[in-house]
Design goal:
Immunoglobulin-like, 11-stranded antiparallel β-sheet, about 45% strand, 1 helix, 11 strands
Length: about 160
């Protein structure tokens, strides 16, 4: 069972687990630019979905193209004019190459060039940001910078 409410750019929804009596909430948004079509890979927007509240949130990116998590094992994310932050990425255990799991906590905190006042999680940055750029690697297309208008993110709708 799924219910969705549309905001100007964000879609919020929930799924109910009748067996366990729990509800999972999510927020999702599509990029404002498209991945170029290249060879057998289809282009299209990058979808960003945030499941659950706070620091324990899980993030899934999805597209019609094929992700490559890369040998570096991270995606680069930038909020507004802030520094570029790296977040670890993982291919799902299902082997679906059109999905990519991303950690909510940055791995950039060890980097001395990142200012101390930078929020360590994607969730916290979304609350203050107007734009988000995510750089992902796409099979046969290389690294692509996908842009999102994240104005209006409401964390209370996924708590």
């Amino acid at each position: 069972m799924s219910e969705q409410v549309k905001d100007p750019v964000w879609t919020y929804g929930e799924t109910k687990d009748d067996m366990r009596g729990t509800v999972s909430r999510f927020a999702t948004i599509d990029s404002i630019n498209a991945i170029p079509e290249n060879g057998p890979e289809m282009g299209g927007a990058l979808n960003f979905t945030l499941f659950g509240p706070g620091d324990d949130a899980s993030i899934v990116l999805s597209t019609d193209a094929q992700f490559v998590c890369g040998s570096d094992g991270f995606v680069a994310v930038k909020f507004d004019d802030g520094p570029v932050l790296n977040f670890n990425c993982h291919e799902p255990s299902s082997g679906n190459t059109k999905l990519l799991q991303v950690d909510n906590l940055t791995s950039s905190l060890m980097d001395k060039s990142v200012p101390e006042n930078v929020y360590p999680t994607i969730t916290h940055n979304l609350m203050a940001a107007k734009t988000m750029t995510i750089e992902v690697e796409i099979f046969e297309s290389g690294r692509q910078q996908m842009k999102f208008n994240v104005t209006g993110f409401n964390k209370d709708k996924i708590n």
